[in-house]
Amino acid sequence: QVQLVESGGGLVQPGGSLRLSCAASGATFSSYAMSWYRQGPGKERELVATITSAGSRTNYADSVKGRFTISRDNAKRTVYLQMNNLKPGDTAVYYCKAGNVYGLNYWGQGTQVTVSS
Questions:
Q1: Cα angle at 35 between 100 and 109, to 5 degrees?
Q2: What whole-number distance in Å separates Cα of residue 14 and Cα of residue 22?
Q3: Edge-to-edge strand order for the sheet containing 18-26?
Q4: pLDDT by residue for the chain (117 residues), tens digit each?
Q5: What is the pLDDT of residue 75?
Q6: How far apart are the first and last CA of the chain?
Q7: What residues does 21 pair with on adjacent strands?
Q8: CA-to-CA dists, residue 29 to 26, 38, 53, 89, angstroms
């Protein structure tokens, strides 16, 4: 079992920045690939970014490439999402997910990000 708690969301103006954190407890954090997803109003949940268990590789949705950065600190059992140059279209509830090679997935409760002037 892995428990995930997101934090760092809030209200920000267009062009601003936020840094989301997802703290993990329970099973071995370093054995899980970590991802950030988001679900905007009236939209389906979509994958935003993924980082491998060792942090050696990352992948991003085209809509956030060049603006968002995913990183992790296995010693702190935390994954981050640095979001720069935020746009109103980035408004969503952001979720982190832990997944391992056996197909086990765990989700956090989500944190709201609102981009508005």
A1: 100
A2: 23
A3: 2-7, 18-26, 78-83, 68-73
A4: 899 999 999 999 999 999 999 999 987 899 999 999 999 999 999 999 999 999 999 999 999 999 999 999 999 999 999 999 999 999 999 999 999 888 899 999 999 999 999
A5: 94
A6: 40
A7: 7, 80
A8: 8, 21, 8, 31
Contact 53, 108 (CB under 8 A): no
Angle at alpha carbon of residue 53, lines to 52 and 54, rounded to 5°? 95
User: Coil, helix or strand for 116?
Assistant: coil
User: Which letter does DSSP use for residue 6 in this model?
Assistant: E
The span from the CA of 34 to the CA of 109, in Å, is: 15
Torsion of CA 18, 56, 106, 30, to 10 degrees: -110
Q: How many CB atoms lie within 10 A of CB 51?
A: 22
